[in-house]
Amino acid sequence: MQRISTLRVSPLCLGGNVFGWTADTAMSERILDAFCDGGGNFVDTADSYSAWVPGHPGGESESAIGVWLRQGGNRDRVVIATKAGKHPVHRGLRPANLRICLDGSRRRLGVETIDLYYAHKDDPGVPVAEWVGAFDTMIKAGAIRHYGLSNFTAERVAEVIEVATGEGLALPVALQPHYNLVHRAEVETSGLAELAQQHHLAVVPYYGLAAGFLTGKYARDELMHGPRAGQAKTYATEQGFATLDALFAVAEESGADPATVALAWLRQQPGVVAPIASVSDVDQLPALLASTTFKLTRGQVNRLSRASAGL
């Protein structure tokens, strides 16, 4: 197990973005059961999942997880992370809005306390002291245990830490950036990685498998199809496919699935506590769980890092 402040979490975080979308409620329950049975305990969702689907208002993922929690008495099996600030009706980090979002998430999940509550997106229009103060109040009230920052720049993370420290408010404990083998610069060259290490912030990166690109789901010169193809196309550059070639080579020599290798590479980067990855079918889960114990050699890590340098 890894640690995020007082939380003990598995070195893989199960992404809930597909729950209630490409995985219906029944499949979501099967995936969650298999994840926990395989040693996982860390689940990530958001109040906005899956509002991008026509006819979905948002909250579908939290609701699916909530059904699983209630039906199986599973609350003690998992550490739950969810997020606020990007719901299509309740956007932004105004304290009043955050209270509405918190109440909605707790109701859908059926929990009194959320373990890790992220600001899903920065909101420069609200003074930092105001929304950090709202998170501080939630912690003191027992509604959440800790808070984190998702999709924040290094400059804004530094400002949050400065304001929280100066005002005597609770500090964030985790960062959730976009980070994977074919999307590295946002974390590695922006100062975010250094800030995380300096302030002991756990890095819990999303798109750990690059929306399926790093599984080998998409091939060169092949038209990309599927609900997540739009995001995957952003990685489909010549260097992206060259990185995929290197990934396949390491996977073949290791006797491991490419998804296992890609997540292991990410988990072995400085500051990373638990990459986030999701599956739409329970059969896809073993390759992800295998990454929690699979260790790449230094040479293999270097080969993959060289292939993806600059991405």
Name of the CATH homologous superfamily of the domain at 2-176: NADP-dependent oxidoreductase domain
Structural class: alpha/beta
The level of helicity is 40-55%
Individual helix count: 12
Shape: globular
Could you report the average pLDDT, rounded to the nearest whole number?
Answer: 95
State the end-to-end distance. 30 Å
- Rg to the nearest angstrom? 19 Å
Polypeptide structure, described:
The relative contact order is 0.13. The chain has a domain at 2-176: TIM Barrel, CATH 3.20.20. It has 311 residues and is α/β, with parallel strands linked by helices. The protein has helices at residues 25-37, 60-72, 95-109, 128-141, 154-167, 185-188, 192-198, 229-232, 238-254, 258-267, 285-290, 298-307; strands at 2-4, 7-9, 13-15, 42-44, 79-84, 114-119, 144-150, 174-176, 202-203, 276-277. The chain is built from 12 helices and 10 strands. It is globular, with a radius of gyration of 19 Å. It has an 8-stranded parallel beta sheet, covered by helices on one side. A two-stranded antiparallel ribbon has the order 1-2.
